[in-house]
Amino acid sequence: MHAYRSHTCGELRAAQVGETVKLSGWIHRKREHANALFIDLRDHYGVTQVVVYPVADFYETAKRCPAESVITVSGELLKRDAEAINAEIATGEVELRADEFTVESTAHNIPLPVFGEPDYPEDIRLKYRYLDLRRETLHKNILLRGQIINSLRRRMIDQGFTEFQTPILTASSPEGARDFLVPSRLNPGKFYALPQAPQQFKQLIMVSGFDRYFQIAPCFRDEDARADRSPGEFYQLDIEMSFVTQEDVFNAIEPVMAGVFEEFADGREVQTPFPRIPYKESMEKYGSDKPDLRNPILLKDVSDFFTDEDLTGFGIFAKITKGGGKVIAVPAPKAAAEKSRKFFDDMDKWAKKEMQMPGLGYARLSTGDDGATRSQDPVLKNFKPDHLAKFFEATGLEAGDGVFFAAGKKNDAYKLAGAARNLVGEQLELIEDGVFKFCWIVDFPMYEWDEDNKKVDFSHNPFSMPQGGMEALENATSDEELLDILAYQYDIVCNGVELSSGAIRNHKPDIMYKAFENAGYGPEVVDDKFAGMINAFKHGAPPHGGIAPGVDRIVMLLAGAKNIREVILFPMNGQAQDLMMNAPSEAESAQLKELHLKLVPVDDKK
Fold first, then answer.
1. How far from each other are the two terminal CA atoms of the chain, in whole angstroms?
2. How confident is the model at residue 465 (pLDDT cuts 50, 70, 90)?
3. What is the DSSP string of 92-151?
4. Which is nearest to 96 in space by CA: 35, 13, 32?
5. Sequential DSSP letters for 157-174
6. Helix/strand/coil for 182
7. 463 phi and psi, to 5 degrees?
8. Tens-place pLDDT, residues 381-393
9. Residue 203, SS3?
10. Helix 279-286 vs helix 410-427: crossing angle, to nearest 10
């Protein structure tokens, strides 16, 4: 028999009763009865109950052995009595009678209990991640991650893609975040950058004559943590294709995404095909370019109803609209009938505290003595009757509903309205459960207005092909016309989570120079910052495009996790620290000298 096990702790069944078996694993928990000691023995595959009787010469050793110690046990497999069967585990019909018992490793002073998975502070969970990973939920999440990556890889290969690996030590990439820099010992004073994404390399692969590339790519960005974003590093399904249109990319990737979600949906629905929603429409309907389509609430621009103070009696919104601002309505179906005033006041407080906005106006709708819908709340209280009736006709609101109003500069109003839409949907329990709703967001603007620098700049990836090509770039003679240019840029979104951005690339040097010129960058910037790519394009580049769905976010959605750290093997904390490995750490003087580096003292007052 093998030195440690003949079976795993998850595979024994009634068919093996009577056999002599050997198991190894961790002591999950112990229960001492008057005539026996019961041990739940756990390994990667499952749990088997072990029974140790007092007549065994190792009984006291087993009784004293702490939880999470590693043991090897051998003996006869017994069938449990009918009343002792545990239907919650796969091995619940059997138990192992211990005839031999060996302690392989004793666990001391466990700082994090594994059994029962009680809630514990995150810093302890991360410091002792190897214990945290023994817990069933997290263990399953990490296994699920591996299975999802295998499925993605298999589906990409089946679609005719080939996997390549791109460099980790490279130059800066224009992805919009801070780089992680690596000093070069052999080139004093110079630095590599860890790739924020393999963007330039995957395009160069297309220029090199390869056709369909993919990679489960590690990416590094010096960003702050969020619930759906890990600081430091993440993985993405990086994809690029030659001789394709935007629709070709969608047709290749949609079956991969739908297929992997269907494979691991676990009873949840995956709606296909994925709708295409123009960016402008998405912002106007949902207040976001990553809409959660499970939420039925649609925003409504009601600015025109507030321009005339004589008709509304509400001067605050009239002043905003006359100054070019917007008033966006966020319906709250049945909220007036089902919620107290506190719900509405709390939303206003949330807008002020969490969104840092002046507030969120609201109106609760009821039926007046004349049978007409009305509101006693300030925003609508003084509307002229005919004007109010037109307002309700345009918005579809009726007695019993509530409505919130986000007002201000256009972008600010839509940002607040979009966030309010999400919160109202959650508070009113309107979010459809048990379904994955994808969409493609298309037709992103090529440029946006940089308020800080008072100039036009790129809104997304500067390497995207503008819709209309050179003609569109040359015909735009004003900032307003530049801001109207759309790009072949697209996002894929699921349940309000942006999984990826992608684009059909600008593969023509003359169009690239012109695109940068329109944003205020001369040809010397392109030649300096993107020398490898622009030079390659001058030697014959195919039309190409791609996308890069985030693996961590895919797993988070399928696992039903609320935080991305619950699906990453060894994550950092919110301050980008690895508490288990004590990273980042100080470098020794000899290391700094070898790298020709000198540290500047940190000013703690800043």
1. 66
2. very high
3. TTEEEEPSEEEEEE---S-SS--TT-----HHHHHHTHHHHTTSHHHHHHHHHHHHHHHH
4. 13
5. HHTT-EE----SSB----
6. strand
7. -95, 10
8. 999 999 999 999 9
9. helix
10. 60
Taking alpha carbons only, the member of 399, 408, 350 closest to residue 376 is 399
Tell me 487's DSSP state: B
pLDDT of residue 532: 87
Closest-CA residue to 438 (of 587, 246, 292)? 292
Q: Long-range contacts for 114-118 (Cβ within 8 Å, ≥24 apart)?
A: 114/26, 114/28, 114/67, 114/68, 115/28, 115/29, 115/40, 115/67
CA 593 – CA 559 distance, rounded (Å):
46
Q: In the predicted model, is pLDDT for residue 604 greater than 70?
A: no
Which two structure tokens, joined as six digits, stand for 224? 């702050």
How far apart are the C-alpha atoms of 128 and 109, rounded to whole Å?
A: 12
Alpha-helical segments (H) within 329-409: 335-338, 341-353, 378-381, 385-395
- Assigned token pair, 188: 């004093």
Q: What is the pLDDT of residue 390?
A: 96
C-alpha pair distances (Å), 5 with each of 45, 75, 102, 269: 13, 11, 12, 41
Pairing state between β 162-163 and 212-221: parallel
Q: pLDDT band for position 228 (50/70/90)?
A: confident
CA distance 570 to 146: 14
Residues 6+ apart with CB under 8 A from 322: 307
DSSP, res 463? T
Cα–Cα distance for residue pair 359/404, rounded to 1 Å: 10
Residues 261-299 have pLDDT tens digits of 999 999 999 999 999 999 999 999 999 999 999 999 999
Residue 175 in this model has a pLDDT that exceeds 70: no
| Residues ≥6 apart with Cβ < 8 Å to 483 | 445, 447, 448, 449, 456
How long is the chain? 606
CB 417 within 8 A of CB 351: no
422-436 average pLDDT score: 98
CA gap 413, 409 in Å, rounded = 6
For residue 493, pLDDT beyond 60: yes
Residue 224's pLDDT is: 87
In single-letter form, the type of residue at position 81 comes to D
Q: How much of the chain is in helix, strand and coil states, percent to nearest 5?
A: 35, 25, 40
What does the block give as tokens for 325? 């601002």
Confidence of residue 173 (pLDDT cuts 50, 70, 90): low
CA dihedral over 384, 390, 394, 395, signed as positive or negative: positive
Is it the case that residue 55 has pLDDT exceeding 70? yes
Nearest of 73, 514, 488, 521 to residue 246 by alpha carbon = 488
pLDDT tens-digit map of 540-581: 999 999 999 999 999 999 999 999 999 999 999 999 999 999
